[in-house]
Structure formats: C-alpha cells, structure tokens
Amino acid sequence: MCLWWFANSVRSALVVVVLAGGFGHGLVLPGWAQEVGEIGNREWGMGNGAEQQSDSTPDSRLLTPDSLSNLDQPAATVEEWLAQIQASLTQITRVRIETTDAGLQVILETADGALNVPETRAIGNALIADIPNATIAEEFSQANPIEGIALVNVTQLPGDRVRVAITGTDAPPSAEVTSEVQGLVLTVMLGDASAVAEEDAIQVVVTGEQDEGHNPRRASTATRTDTPLRDIPQSITVVPRQVLDDRNVRSVNQAVETVAGVIDNGDDGGYAGDRIIRGFSQGFGAAPANLRNGYRDVNYYSVTPIGTIEQIEVLRGPASVLFGALEPGGVINVITRQPLSEPFYEIAFEAGSYGFYQPNIDLSGPLTVDDTLLYRFIASYQNADSFQDFVNSERITVAPSVTLNLGDRTSLNFYYEYADLFLDSIQTYSFALSNGSLRGCLKRFEVSNLCQPPHHNPNHGKVDQGF
C-alpha cells in the first residue's frame, strides 16, 4: 500500500514538472508557434515583464484582410483573363533595318521586356522566324533594302506570334538571332545560290500523256512498221476505236464514211464492201483492196464484224510496191483488237429499229502473274432487217486470240476468227421507165417498192487464223 502511494506521488510530481517546463522555457516550440504564442501572450497579457501589457497592433507577419487583398487573384471574367494574357505578351513597338558589311540587321524594339529567341527555317528563298508570345504595334514591310534581299516582312500571326520573313533574291539568307534587354536582333547574311542543295530546291514536275483515243499518231499500213504518221510521205487516215464507239458504227462502210476520198459504191442492202477510193472502184472485178492486219481480205462483202476492229487505216494512192497488184486509188487495212495486259470484261446488248438486236461479249486479261501470256475472247451475234423491203441479215462472230510476250519488244500473237454472214439483199441499181415503174436486172416492179424483188445471196463466211 505504501509502495503504491509512493509511485503515484512520483508520477504526479513528474507531470507537474513537465507542465511547468512547458509554460516556462523548458519546452521548445517551432518558430511559427512561438510567434503566435508571443502574439497571443501580448494580446492576453500573459507575457513576462514589459510584454505583460496588451498590444493592440497586430504583427506584420500575420495574414490580415489588407494583406490578402494584395495577393494576385485569378481572373473571374473573360475580360480579366484576356487582360492577364495581354499583360504577359511582349509588344514590338518599332522595327529598324541597318546595313552591315555581310548583309543587314533587323532590329525589333520593345517598350519593356525581352523577346523569346525563335528558331529559323528556310522556305524557298525566304528565311522565316516565328516569335512566340509577342505582338506588334504596326506591321512592317520593306522591299529591296539591300542587293540580294528582295523583301523584309514583319507581320502578326494568329496565336500571339510575330513572323519575320526575309526573302532573298537568288537564295534564302541565313541569320543569327541575338536577344537584347529590350528587343531582338537578327543579323542577316546573304545566301549563296550555288550552295543550295538540289533536293532543297522547289521542283515542279508536269507529266503529260497524249490522248490518242481520237487522234492516233501511228500507223503500220504504209511501212508495215509502227511509224509515226508525220514521218510517212503517203496520205493515211486512221479511224480509231474511240471514233467507232462514239459514232456507234455497225460496218466498215459506215466507219469510212468520214474519210476524205472514200465513198460507198452501192451495196446489197448495206452489207457489201464495194467502195470507191479516189475514183477507183474496189468491187467485183477489181484488184483486192481490203486488208486485215496487213494481209489480203475478202474484197466485196464486209464479213469482218465491227466488234473485232481496233482501228481502220485508209491509205490513199498507189501501194502496189507494198501489197502487189492493187487498184491505184488506195487500200483499207483493218487492225483487229489484241489481248490486253490489264483485265477487261465487257458484256453489251444493243437493240434498234427494224428488228435490229446484237449481244456482244469481250473478255481480256493476263493468264500468268508476270503478264507473259495474255488472252482475248470476242463473240457476237447480230440480226437485223432494213427500211428496204426484202433485206435482212444474220451475223455470227467468234474470235479468240492469245499473245505470248517473249521480251520487251517481241511478242507472238495467235488468233482465230470465225465470221459468218447470212444475207438476203436487193440490187439497188435500177432505171425508170416511161410508165413510171423502175426496171432492174430481173423484172419490172412497182415504184412504191423502191427496189427490185429480193434475190437470195449465199452465206458469206470466212475463217482467219494465223500468228
């Protein structure tokens, strides 16, 4: 019991000593705590000696309402925010240009504060420097300040930037940028045109291709070679595929209607191939004047279908030295369509008046990945009547071909063409009698028919094959 009382007494005494030291000088407090404690002691009269008197003047290190008002406050409105941004920008008040031995100096002066040093870059013949966080009171421009400098521009850009553009006459100048206390100095040296790298120069490349769709430049009829027409002394007219499609022609006779010096010599309902070239007939009894890919073709009936033709070449004038015995008026050479290296697929159907209808199919493309072997397959069927009585026709065409490319300038073409023409036609040459009727070779008939009675022509067919 005595020991317990003694222990409690000792513990109580230690607590009293600690508390007494805390109110005295035995307890060390942080500086701010001491300051606040001293101020509190002065206000409450708890200090020692003279400090026991209450002092109503607050310590200057305390935050008071007056000191809070002196702190920077965030913007509360858009106008205040813009004003703060404007206050952070540096305004260029004046721009001066001074000449030097090496070139010139562009001096940007400010009322207060230095400008940020920009990076320079060349665009064409111009040296560009964009200064951030800056404005300019008045934009500046001066042309030809010295020889070798075409223009100096100082302009305002969006985003609070000022651009200095110095354009050289022959090459972009170079510049050294120096920051001053109240401004910026660009020391400009003239550029050397010979030192401009070729890859840095601006190049304008224009690539053009001649559109030979309506105006081909080459033909093989006169020379049997792919020679430009301007280098051939003979008179040659080429009717390309584009013109055939635009005019929607259905026979070789229609295709050459627009060729000078060539006219139709009258045919059996529009299917014969009798033409007059420079006054010389190409019909019955005449020397062959129709060619197909440079080789003799049938002379009278136009069996070759228009769907297999790539272009028609008309050579006017004597050509016996090239093709043997020919009429001196000229020849007509039909160039057929060849296999293509790009895939091409066409299926068409045509229909018209007088019972005309014609389905077509044209397929072409490569058979191998390296385009060494190419193919083309053309097939068509045509059936038609006419505005003339007793005229009707039926045409069947199948034309496959294969091309083997042996090199860049060498190819071997294998082709096969089957063409068959079933024709009922009339003779169009007649003369009028005194009684008002027309007289032909066979019999007399009424004028209202405007033709002779029909005569049946046998089938006109051909098969072309070769390489």
Automatic annotation (TrEMBL):
Residue stretches making up the TonB-dependent receptor plug domain: 229-331
Q: According to its record, what are the GO cellular component terms?
A: cell outer membrane
Q: Which GO terms describe its molecular function?
A: siderophore uptake transmembrane transporter activity
**Where in the cell?**
Cell outer membrane
One biological process GO term for this chain? siderophore transport
The record's principal subcellular location, in a coarse class, is membrane
| Keyword terms of this UniProt record | Cell outer membrane, Ion transport, Iron, Iron transport, Membrane, Receptor, Signal, Transmembrane, Transmembrane beta strand, Transport
The UniProt entry lists membrane topology as: Multi-pass membrane protein
Gene3D superfamilies according to UniProt: TonB-dependent receptor, beta-barrel domain, TonB-dependent receptor, plug domain
Extract the PROSITE patterns matched here: TONB_DEPENDENT_REC_3 (PS52016)
The AMIN domain extends over: 95-187
Query: What family is it from?
Result: Belongs to the TonB-dependent receptor family.
Instruction: Output this protein's name.
Output: TonB-dependent receptor plug domain-containing protein
Q: From which source organism is this entry?
A: Thermocoleostomius sinensis A174
Ranked from the top, the taxonomy reads:
Bacteria, Bacillati, Cyanobacteriota, Cyanophyceae, Oculatellales
